[in-house]
Design a protein that fits this description.
alpha/beta, Rossmann fold, two-stranded antiparallel ribbon, globular, binds thiamine diphosphate, binds magnesium ion
């Protein structure tokens, strides 16, 4: 029933090559995100749900798990997908609804991630349904005696849904290997946290269910990664689920259809840019000598080139054939 606040750590078991890889994942997610926004503003992509500001937590929690585990990400989790091997090409094929899209063959809305090969379970548009699915998957793993963890992520606003409480209750009673990953970005569209819950930290909700809850600086990759490793270890030992709360800030509007100027000041948004996770990780890799400034610049160019190529590929890729419209919709 531990509840702790973990301080950011700059050290971890990761070697320099792995840290570089994690930074690359964060940069790739950010660069894809930026270009998706541009495509939307140019009228080429109908809907974008940005991840900007949440990359440290997303890459951190995905990297803290194993490929054999089960992933139930939510719509903002591009960083999770990139860490699982999702390429820039795949991201833009999905955004533009092309037939090669691995998440659904161009059927799902953008941000509704699914990838059978990597154990990513497709999500529904009603928020929080994925946490119940994670508990069911963990229960099945437990019955089969498998050593796997199911991790579901959600926003802090979604922790006020009934589904979340039913899922935590059941998972804790049966000590199931589940991680409830809360990406707390301070808002549920226009509602600030103070109008979503009467507690300071969403992790406090774990106490009522007799399970572990930790609050972590979600802008610090290392803190997120380490906290996930610890929670996964607890789950695999049979010591039950953990509610991981990563605190961060959504640097962009909720979606490409939202105007955040109506509910938050520009000063507030600007102030959070000092804790931009990409900036923090960049400072770390330079200060720790993981990369030189030249190498860091070259990495950025490499990622930009990958994204340019991916957009060109996805724009010319074919749409699904019309005769596929009802596949998977009705039983034959
Ligand atoms: C059950 C349900 N209610 C409302 C919505 C509309 N909706 C979509 S996202 C969202 C905000 C969720 O906020 P939060 O959980 O904090 O995640 P964030 O978008 O901030 O990452 C809402 C209300 C929905 N999709 N499903
Ligand atoms: Mg939120």
């Amino acid at each position: 029933m531990a509840r702790t606040k973990e301080s950011p750590k700059a050290t971890s078991a990761l070697g320099p090559a792995e840290v570089r890889k994690m930074y690359r994942n964060m940069l790739l997610a950010r660069t894809i995100d930026e270009r998706m926004w541009t495509l939307n503003r140019a009228g080429k992509a109908p809907f974008v749900i940005p991840c900007r500001g949440q990359e440290a937590a997303q890459v951190g929690w995905a990297a803290g798990l194993r490929p054999t585990d089960y992933f139930l990400p939510y719509y903002r989790d591009l960083g999770v997908m990139v860490t699982l091997g999702y390429t820039a090409r795949q991201a833009f094929l999905s955004l533009l609804g092309k037939s090669e899209d691995v998440t659904s063959g161009g059927r799902q809305m953008p941000g509704h991630y699914g990838w059978e090969e990597r154990h990513v379970i497709t999500g529904s548009s009603p928020v929080t349904t994925q946490v119940l699915h994670a508990v069911g998957i963990a229960y099945a793993s437990h019955l089969r005696g498998e050593d796997t963890v199911a991790a579901a992520s959600l926003g802090e606003g979604s922790t006020s849904q009934g589904d979340f409480h039913e899922a935590m209750n059941w998972a804790s009673i049966y000590k199931l290997p589940v991680l409830f990953v809360v990406e707390n970005n301070g808002y549920a569209i226009s509602s600030p946290q103070s109008k979503e819950m009467a507690v300071q930290d969403a992790a406090e909700r774990a106490l009522g269910y007799g399970m572990a809850g930790v609050t972590v600086d979600g802008t610090d990759f290392f803190a997120c990664y380490e906290a996930t490793l610890q929670a996964a270890e607890r789950a695999r030992r049979g010591d039950g689920p953990t509610l991981l709360e990563f605190k961060m800030y959504r640097l962009l509007p909720h979606s490409s259809d939202d105007d955040d100027r109506t509910y938050r000041s520009r000063e507030e948004v600007e102030a959070w840019k000092d804790r931009d996770p990409i900036l923090r990780m960049k400072n770390h890799v330079l200060e720790a000598g993981v990369m030189t400034a030249e190498e860091e610049g070259a990495l950025r160019s490499e990622v930009q080139a990958e994204v340019d190529e991916a957009i060109a590929y996805a724009e010319t890729a074919p749409y699904p054939p019309v005769e596929d419209m009802f596949t998977h919709v009705y039983a034959d």
